[in-house]
Each structure stands twice: as C-alpha cells, then as structure tokens.
C-alpha cells in the first residue's frame, strides 16, 4: 500500500453524516496530525465559510482549523482570479461564496450588464435573481457554477441543490456553465495548489463515487472510498472505474 504525502478528505459521509460524527473520523484526523501529513477537508458546500465548517467539525469532535478547509466557493474564486481576474461578476449565492470571492478580489456587481455569472446555492433564491442571470448569460457573460449537486440530503429529505438552480439558467439560455466542484477536476487542482503536494503523492478520500471518487479519477489522483456514506459496498462491482482502494471505514486504513 502506497504512502501518501497529502490527503484531500470529503466531509459529509466521510467525517460525519448530517449532524452525527462518524466514529472513526476523529482518530483518523488525529493520526494525520501526529504524523505531520498535510490535508484539506474538501467540500462542495458553497454556502458555508471556512469558520462555519470548522465550527461544525469541532463541535462533532473532529479537530479542525479554518486553513484546513477548502470549499467549492474557494475553488471558484481562485479559478476566476486566474481565468477572469478583471471580470465584473453577477453572483447568486450565500455568505460562503461571497466571502470567498471578496478574499480573491473578485469584482461583484448587482447589474445584469456584467462579464460573468457565478451561481452557488441560495436558499433565498428569487425569480428576479434567476432572470438577471439569464439575461446576462444571453448577452454573452461567462457562466460558472460552484457545483452540479442536484439534491441535498437533509433531515427533511432530499432538497434542491445548486445544480438544480443552475439548471434553470442553463435550460433557459441553452448554455452550460463551467462547473467547479466535485466531480470536476478543477476543485481538486485548486486544492492541490493550496495543499502544496503533487497529484501523484496525494490521495482523495470520500464516500460518494459520483462526486468524490470521480473527481479524483478525473484529476488523475489515487482515491480511497469508504462505505460510511452514499455509495454502498454492494455497488462496487458495478462501478465503471474502480477507486484505487476501498475500505469499510477509516479505521481500516494505514497511514
């Protein structure tokens, strides 16, 4: 079993399930810290700030610090800074996305006359917000979305995710966005830049084949799938490309 110099670690289904910690998670993180192995918590959640994500982890008993969290909003902001540094962006999203864009110096405008439209989950979405985004995209604005998650698991059941909001604009305009979060490779590449490790020496750990594992595969990275969340063990044989490794839970993994 190969030893890795860095880890990208999913949250929901890997560290916790909803508001319940996965019991093997705290010890896994403590072991990484004790060995001095760098890692980032990698999440598609665009609504939360680093501090908010860290607060939840610590309350659940998983030791975490803000600099160890990397969200799809952060990846989006860094990608925009590289590809469209002077763009005036009309943004649909919550505090996590707004804060990430401000940190990278992205110009945010409330006008539909803009250079780019950026969409993250917005639980205060309105018809007018979607209308402005559609007009801007039709007029030639570049189109970005933090992630393509169509549904979010909650205590109430599956609720609309950012992919569902994004699809309204895509269907209306006939234009597809550049997605940033998992399963796209963009978020992985941006995270590696922050982590400071090479793709060949880093492993992505997650429970969801269609987001976590596919992101690692598309980025050319080794993957470790745990069966503590979305994808059950019974589906393993049907997967088109298998993860590099798979385990029942994190206690079975040797660093």
TrEMBL record:
SUPFAM superfamilies: HAD-like
Cofactor(s), names only, from the UniProt record: Mg(2+)
UniProtKB keywords: Hydrolase, Magnesium, Metal-binding
InterPro entries, per the entry: HAD-like_sf (IPR036412), HAD-SF_hydro_IIA (IPR006357), HAD-SF_hydro_IIA_hyp1 (IPR006354), HAD_sf (IPR023214)
Gene3D superfamilies: HAD superfamily/HAD-like
Gene Ontology MF terms: hydrolase activity
NCBIfam families assigned: HAD-SF-IIA (TIGR01460), HAD-SF-IIA-hyp2 (TIGR01457)
PANTHER family per the UniProt record, alphabetical: 4-NITROPHENYLPHOSPHATASE-RELATED, HALOACID DEHALOGENASE-LIKE HYDROLASE DOMAIN-CONTAINING PROTEIN 2
Family, similarity comment: Belongs to the HAD-like hydrolase superfamily. NagD family.
Official protein name in the record: TIGR01457 family HAD-type hydrolase
Species of provenance: Ornithinibacillus xuwenensis
């Amino acid at each position: 079993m190969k030893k890795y110099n860095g880890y990208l670690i999913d949250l929901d289904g890997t560290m916790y399930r909803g508001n319940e910690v996965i019991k093997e998670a705290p010890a896994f993180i403590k072991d990484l810290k004790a060995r001095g192995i760098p890692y980032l918590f990698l999440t598609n959640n665009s609504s939360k700030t680093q501090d908010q994500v860290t607060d939840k982890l610590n309350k659940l008993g998983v030791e975490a610090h803000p600099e160890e969290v990397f969200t799809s909003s952060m990846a989006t902001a860094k990608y925009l800074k590289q590809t469209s540094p002077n763009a005036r962006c009309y943004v649909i999203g919550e505090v996590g996305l707004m804060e990430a864009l401000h940190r990278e110096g992205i110009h945010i405008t409330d006008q539909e006359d803009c250079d780019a439209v950026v969409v993250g989950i917005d639980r205060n979405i309105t018809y007018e917000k979607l209308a402005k985004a559609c007009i801007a995209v039709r007029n030639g604005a570049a189109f970005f979305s933090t992630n393509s998650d169509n549904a979010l698991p909650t205590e109430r059941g599956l609720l609309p995710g950012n992919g569902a909001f994004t699809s309204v604009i895509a269907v209306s305009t006939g234009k597809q966005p550049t997605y940033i979060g998992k399963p796209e490779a963009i978020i992985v590449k941006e995270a590696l830049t922050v982590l400071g490790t090479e793709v060949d020496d880093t492993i992505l750990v997650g429970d969801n084949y269609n987001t976590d594992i596919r992101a690692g595969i598309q980025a050319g990275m080794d993957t470790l799938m745990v069966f503590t969340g979305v994808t059950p063990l019974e589906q393993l044989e049907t997967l088109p490309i298998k993860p590099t490794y798979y385990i029942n839970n994190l206690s079975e993994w040797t660093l």
